[in-house]
C-alpha cells in the first residue's frame, strides 16, 4: 500500500555502530497533533507556510521550521541501489525463493525483499539502516519513516511478522538513542498493538487506511498520533469519508499516487 516514488536513493557507506550494542533511549518529540502534513517522498518542494509536518526521502534535506520525517526503505531495496545490495558483501541479505531467484516485489519491479529470517541477517541489515538513520539525524530530521514493514505478508510465508518486528526493534532502538521518533508505516491491520509494544514505534503513518477500512487499527494503538494519506487513483469518496471520520483530529491528505513535486502537472494535494 505504499506510494510509488523515484527519488534518488543515496548509499551511505559510513555505517553506524553495531546494531547489537545497547542503546539508551532519549526523549523523542512526536509530530504535532493534527499538524498539517505534506508528503514529499517523490521529490522535495517548498511546502505551504501553514504546513507543520513534512516527510522527505533520506537523500533530501529537512525544511527549516517544520517537523521533519526522514523516509527510508527499510525492508526492501530501491531499484537504483541494486549494485549495493547485490554486491558480494550484501547479497546474502536478500530474500531468495526456493528456486534461488531473488524475491522481487510483484508491484514494484527492481525492488527486492530483505531477508529478516536470521539474527545475523537482521544485525547486518540494521547496521546499514542505522547508518542511514545517522545521516537523517545529522541533517536535522526529527523522525524516521521506515517503509515496507509488511513484506512478511507479501512473501508467500517466507518471512514472518516476528522477524520483521525484530529488525524494526534494532533500528528503532538506534533511532531512539539519537532522539528520533519512529513511525509505524502501514501494516496496522496485521500487527495490531505489536508494532508499538514489540518494535517500539511512536506514531503511525497510514496510507489508504480508509480505502482498506483499517484506520481504527492505527487509532486504537496510537490515538491521534497518526498521519493519513489517501490517493487520487482510488477516487475522492475514500478521502471525503476519511475527512468526515478523522479530519478534525488528525491531518488527512489527498495526494497523487506518485507524490510528485508541486512543479509536476500530475501533482495533487488537498488536506481536510
TrEMBL record:
It comes from the Eukaryota. Residues 1-20 form the signal peptide. One of its GO terms (molecular function) is alpha-galactosidase activity. Keywords: Hydrolase, Signal. Its EC number is 3.2.1.22. Residues 36-260 form the Glycoside-hydrolase family GH114 TIM-barrel domain. This is alpha-galactosidase. It comes from Mycena venus. It catalyses: Hydrolysis of terminal, non-reducing alpha-D-galactose residues in alpha-D-galactosides, including galactose oligosaccharides, galactomannans and galactolipids. InterPro entries: Aldolase_TIM, GH, GH114_TIM-barrel. Gene3D superfamilies: Aldolase class I.
